[in-house]
Amino acid sequence: MKKQLLLSLSILLIFSSCISPLPISRLNPDDSEGKWVAGRKHVTQTNGDYSLTLSFYKSDGNLLLFDALFENFGTKEVDFSPMYARIIAQDMDKNEISKLTPLDPESKLLEYDKTESRERARLANQSISNTVMATSDLLATVADETNPTISREQADINYNQREYDRQNRLADMDRQESYLESIKNSRLYWEEAPIRRTTVGGNEYLEGRLFFERTKEAAFYTITFELPDAGLFSFKYKHELIRP
Q: Which CATH code, of 3.40.1190.10, 2.60.40.1150, 3.30.43.10, 3.90.1640.30, is assigned to 20-103+194-242?
Protein backbone atom coordinates (compact mmCIF):
# COMPACT_ATOMS: atom_id res chain seq x y z
CA MET A 1 0.00 0.00 0.00
CA LYS A 2 2.84 2.36 0.91
CA LYS A 3 4.62 1.64 -2.39
CA GLN A 4 1.40 2.29 -4.34
CA LEU A 5 0.96 5.63 -2.55
CA LEU A 6 4.53 6.68 -3.34
CA LEU A 7 4.06 5.67 -6.98
CA SER A 8 0.83 7.66 -7.21
CA LEU A 9 2.50 10.72 -5.69
CA SER A 10 5.43 10.42 -8.12
CA ILE A 11 3.09 10.25 -11.11
CA LEU A 12 1.14 13.25 -9.78
CA LEU A 13 4.35 15.28 -9.42
CA ILE A 14 5.43 14.42 -12.96
CA PHE A 15 2.13 15.51 -14.48
CA SER A 16 1.80 18.61 -12.30
CA SER A 17 5.32 19.88 -13.11
CA CYS A 18 5.73 22.31 -15.99
CA ILE A 19 8.51 23.82 -18.05
CA SER A 20 9.06 27.52 -17.55
CA PRO A 21 9.12 29.61 -20.73
CA LEU A 22 12.50 30.94 -21.79
CA PRO A 23 13.02 34.68 -21.32
CA ILE A 24 13.11 36.85 -24.43
CA SER A 25 16.06 39.09 -25.25
CA ARG A 26 15.60 42.56 -26.67
CA LEU A 27 18.70 44.37 -27.90
CA ASN A 28 18.73 48.07 -28.64
CA PRO A 29 21.69 49.64 -30.44
CA ASP A 30 23.71 51.98 -28.22
CA ASP A 31 24.00 54.35 -31.15
CA SER A 32 22.09 57.50 -32.05
CA GLU A 33 22.77 56.83 -35.71
CA GLY A 34 21.04 54.18 -37.73
CA LYS A 35 18.02 53.64 -39.90
CA TRP A 36 14.71 52.12 -38.84
CA VAL A 37 13.21 49.57 -41.20
CA ALA A 38 10.06 47.59 -40.29
CA GLY A 39 10.59 48.07 -36.55
CA ARG A 40 14.27 47.17 -36.56
CA LYS A 41 17.20 49.55 -36.33
CA HIS A 42 19.98 48.98 -38.86
CA VAL A 43 23.32 50.46 -37.84
CA THR A 44 25.99 50.98 -40.50
CA GLN A 45 29.71 51.48 -40.02
CA THR A 46 32.21 52.37 -42.74
CA ASN A 47 35.95 51.75 -42.97
CA GLY A 48 37.36 53.25 -46.14
CA ASP A 49 35.83 51.39 -49.07
CA TYR A 50 34.00 48.91 -46.86
CA SER A 51 30.65 49.14 -45.13
CA LEU A 52 29.02 46.78 -42.61
CA THR A 53 25.39 47.01 -41.50
CA LEU A 54 24.08 45.05 -38.52
CA SER A 55 20.53 44.61 -37.24
CA PHE A 56 19.26 42.56 -34.30
CA TYR A 57 16.50 40.21 -35.46
CA LYS A 58 15.31 38.27 -32.40
CA SER A 59 16.20 35.76 -29.72
CA ASP A 60 15.40 32.15 -30.52
CA GLY A 61 15.72 29.90 -27.50
CA ASN A 62 19.20 30.64 -26.19
CA LEU A 63 20.40 32.11 -29.47
CA LEU A 64 20.63 35.73 -30.58
CA LEU A 65 19.99 36.28 -34.29
CA PHE A 66 21.39 39.21 -36.27
CA ASP A 67 21.18 40.17 -39.93
CA ALA A 68 24.39 41.47 -41.50
CA LEU A 69 25.17 43.22 -44.77
CA PHE A 70 28.76 43.72 -45.94
CA GLU A 71 29.43 45.99 -48.92
CA ASN A 72 32.69 46.35 -50.81
CA PHE A 73 32.83 49.66 -52.67
CA GLY A 74 36.51 49.27 -53.55
CA THR A 75 38.35 47.21 -56.13
CA LYS A 76 40.18 44.74 -53.88
CA GLU A 77 38.62 41.39 -52.95
CA VAL A 78 37.77 40.87 -49.28
CA ASP A 79 37.55 37.56 -47.43
CA PHE A 80 34.44 37.75 -45.25
CA SER A 81 33.65 34.98 -42.76
CA PRO A 82 31.20 34.90 -39.85
CA MET A 83 34.01 33.39 -37.80
CA TYR A 84 35.74 36.79 -37.81
CA ALA A 85 32.92 38.02 -35.56
CA ARG A 86 32.83 38.01 -31.75
CA ILE A 87 30.07 38.77 -29.27
CA ILE A 88 31.28 40.18 -25.94
CA ALA A 89 28.83 40.07 -23.04
CA GLN A 90 29.25 42.65 -20.26
CA ASP A 91 27.64 43.23 -16.88
CA MET A 92 26.22 46.54 -15.61
CA ASP A 93 29.75 47.78 -14.81
CA LYS A 94 30.91 46.94 -18.35
CA ASN A 95 33.03 44.05 -17.08
CA GLU A 96 33.43 41.25 -19.60
CA ILE A 97 31.40 38.12 -18.82
CA SER A 98 31.99 36.09 -21.95
CA LYS A 99 33.42 36.34 -25.45
CA LEU A 100 32.05 33.95 -28.05
CA THR A 101 32.24 33.26 -31.76
CA PRO A 102 29.01 32.75 -33.73
CA LEU A 103 27.76 29.31 -34.67
CA ASP A 104 29.73 28.03 -37.65
CA PRO A 105 27.36 27.32 -40.58
CA GLU A 106 29.80 24.86 -42.14
CA SER A 107 29.97 22.83 -38.92
CA LYS A 108 26.16 22.82 -38.68
CA LEU A 109 25.88 21.60 -42.27
CA LEU A 110 28.38 18.82 -41.56
CA GLU A 111 26.32 17.77 -38.52
CA TYR A 112 23.17 17.57 -40.64
CA ASP A 113 25.01 15.62 -43.36
CA LYS A 114 26.23 13.05 -40.82
CA THR A 115 22.79 12.77 -39.22
CA GLU A 116 21.14 12.37 -42.62
CA SER A 117 23.61 9.63 -43.59
CA ARG A 118 22.88 7.72 -40.37
CA GLU A 119 19.12 8.07 -40.79
CA ARG A 120 19.24 6.92 -44.41
CA ALA A 121 21.16 3.81 -43.36
CA ARG A 122 18.69 3.18 -40.53
CA LEU A 123 15.77 3.58 -42.94
CA ALA A 124 17.35 1.20 -45.46
CA ASN A 125 17.95 -1.41 -42.76
CA GLN A 126 14.37 -1.01 -41.54
CA SER A 127 13.10 -1.52 -45.09
CA ILE A 128 15.11 -4.75 -45.43
CA SER A 129 13.87 -5.91 -42.04
CA ASN A 130 10.27 -5.18 -43.03
CA THR A 131 10.68 -7.22 -46.22
CA VAL A 132 12.04 -10.17 -44.23
CA MET A 133 9.23 -9.86 -41.69
CA ALA A 134 6.60 -9.69 -44.47
CA THR A 135 7.92 -12.97 -45.90
CA SER A 136 7.98 -14.50 -42.42
CA ASP A 137 4.40 -13.34 -41.77
CA LEU A 138 3.23 -14.86 -45.05
CA LEU A 139 4.84 -18.21 -44.20
CA ALA A 140 3.32 -18.08 -40.70
CA THR A 141 -0.15 -17.38 -42.13
CA VAL A 142 0.14 -20.32 -44.55
CA ALA A 143 1.37 -22.55 -41.71
CA ASP A 144 -1.59 -21.57 -39.50
CA GLU A 145 -4.04 -22.21 -42.33
CA THR A 146 -2.64 -25.69 -43.04
CA ASN A 147 -2.00 -26.81 -39.45
CA PRO A 148 -4.92 -28.96 -38.28
CA THR A 149 -3.97 -28.46 -34.62
CA ILE A 150 -4.60 -24.68 -34.82
CA SER A 151 -8.22 -23.58 -34.56
CA ARG A 152 -9.77 -20.97 -36.85
CA GLU A 153 -10.09 -18.63 -33.89
CA GLN A 154 -6.42 -19.00 -32.93
CA ALA A 155 -5.33 -18.57 -36.56
CA ASP A 156 -7.29 -15.30 -36.72
CA ILE A 157 -5.72 -14.12 -33.45
CA ASN A 158 -2.24 -14.88 -34.78
CA TYR A 159 -2.98 -13.11 -38.07
CA ASN A 160 -4.37 -10.02 -36.34
CA GLN A 161 -1.27 -9.80 -34.12
CA ARG A 162 1.02 -10.04 -37.14
CA GLU A 163 -1.01 -7.36 -38.93
CA TYR A 164 -0.84 -5.13 -35.85
CA ASP A 165 2.94 -5.54 -35.72
CA ARG A 166 3.17 -4.83 -39.47
CA GLN A 167 1.22 -1.59 -39.11
CA ASN A 168 3.52 -0.53 -36.27
CA ARG A 169 6.58 -1.19 -38.42
CA LEU A 170 5.10 0.88 -41.25
CA ALA A 171 4.28 3.68 -38.80
CA ASP A 172 7.89 3.59 -37.57
CA MET A 173 9.11 3.94 -41.15
CA ASP A 174 6.77 6.88 -41.72
CA ARG A 175 8.19 8.58 -38.62
CA GLN A 176 11.74 7.92 -39.79
CA GLU A 177 10.95 9.34 -43.24
CA SER A 178 9.38 12.44 -41.65
CA TYR A 179 12.44 12.90 -39.45
CA LEU A 180 14.71 12.54 -42.48
CA GLU A 181 12.67 15.19 -44.30
CA SER A 182 12.94 17.55 -41.32
CA ILE A 183 16.74 17.07 -41.35
CA LYS A 184 16.83 17.99 -45.05
CA ASN A 185 14.70 21.09 -44.43
CA SER A 186 16.89 22.18 -41.52
CA ARG A 187 19.99 21.69 -43.63
CA LEU A 188 18.49 23.79 -46.40
CA TYR A 189 17.85 26.60 -43.90
CA TRP A 190 21.45 26.50 -42.68
CA GLU A 191 22.64 26.43 -46.27
CA GLU A 192 20.71 29.55 -47.30
CA ALA A 193 19.97 31.74 -44.25
CA PRO A 194 23.36 32.25 -42.52
CA ILE A 195 26.06 34.53 -43.80
CA ARG A 196 28.81 32.16 -44.98
CA ARG A 197 32.45 32.59 -45.84
CA THR A 198 32.68 34.36 -49.18
CA THR A 199 35.21 36.29 -51.20
CA VAL A 200 33.48 39.62 -51.80
CA GLY A 201 34.76 41.33 -54.94
CA GLY A 202 34.79 45.01 -55.80
CA ASN A 203 31.32 46.59 -55.96
CA GLU A 204 29.81 43.41 -54.54
CA TYR A 205 27.93 42.74 -51.31
CA LEU A 206 27.17 39.84 -49.00
CA GLU A 207 24.24 39.45 -46.63
CA GLY A 208 22.95 36.80 -44.27
CA ARG A 209 22.20 35.87 -40.68
CA LEU A 210 24.49 35.45 -37.68
CA PHE A 211 23.73 33.15 -34.74
CA PHE A 212 25.28 33.81 -31.33
CA GLU A 213 24.77 31.95 -28.07
CA ARG A 214 23.11 34.15 -25.47
CA THR A 215 24.51 35.14 -22.09
CA LYS A 216 21.42 35.85 -19.98
CA GLU A 217 23.33 37.81 -17.34
CA ALA A 218 24.57 40.35 -19.87
CA ALA A 219 23.51 43.98 -19.53
CA PHE A 220 25.44 45.02 -22.64
CA TYR A 221 26.77 43.34 -25.75
CA THR A 222 29.53 44.40 -28.09
CA ILE A 223 29.75 42.68 -31.46
CA THR A 224 33.01 43.03 -33.35
CA PHE A 225 34.10 42.04 -36.83
CA GLU A 226 37.85 42.00 -37.38
CA LEU A 227 38.22 41.50 -41.12
CA PRO A 228 41.82 40.96 -42.28
CA ASP A 229 41.29 43.01 -45.45
CA ALA A 230 38.73 45.58 -44.27
CA GLY A 231 39.55 46.51 -40.67
CA LEU A 232 37.61 46.46 -37.41
CA PHE A 233 33.87 47.08 -37.05
CA SER A 234 32.22 47.34 -33.62
CA PHE A 235 28.54 47.52 -32.62
CA LYS A 236 27.23 48.09 -29.09
CA TYR A 237 23.84 47.01 -27.74
CA LYS A 238 21.90 47.33 -24.51
CA HIS A 239 20.39 44.02 -23.45
CA GLU A 240 16.96 43.69 -21.87
CA LEU A 241 15.78 40.30 -20.64
CA ILE A 242 11.99 39.97 -20.74
CA ARG A 243 10.24 37.15 -18.92
CA PRO A 244 6.93 35.99 -20.47
A: 2.60.40.1150
Domain boundaries, the chain: 20-103+194-242, 107-191
Half-sphere exposure of 201 (CA within 13 A, CB side): 0
Query: What tens digit of pLDDT does each residue of 80-97 get?
Result: 999 999 999 999 999 999
- Cα–Cα distance measured from residue 240 to residue 23, given in angstroms and rounded to the nearest whole number: 10
Q: 103-156, pLDDT tens digit by residue?
A: 999 999 999 999 999 999 999 999 999 999 999 999 989 898 898 888 999 988
Phi and psi at 230, nearest 5°, equal -135, 0
Please report, for residues 30, 59, 200, the alpha-carbon distance to residue 54 in angstroms, rounded to integers and kept in the order given. Answer: 12, 15, 17
- List the one residue out of 62, 67, 72 whose CA is nearest residue 85: 67
